[in-house]
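step: validate -> pass
step: tokenize input -> pass
step: predict -> running
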Amino acid sequence: MVGDFNIDAKRLYERMGYVVVGELPNFYVEGINEYLMMKTK
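step: predict -> pass
step: emit ->
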């Protein structure tokens, strides 16, 4: 998972082949969404 505020980390994961498979609004902190990312073959 990566927070929506952490754009650089999300970009890094995407370059490594991860894709967003879900979004969890307010999961850890109110107002911050988490992206659930998964790497597929």
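step: describe -> The CA atoms of residues 1 and 36 lie 5 Å apart.
step: cleanup -> pass
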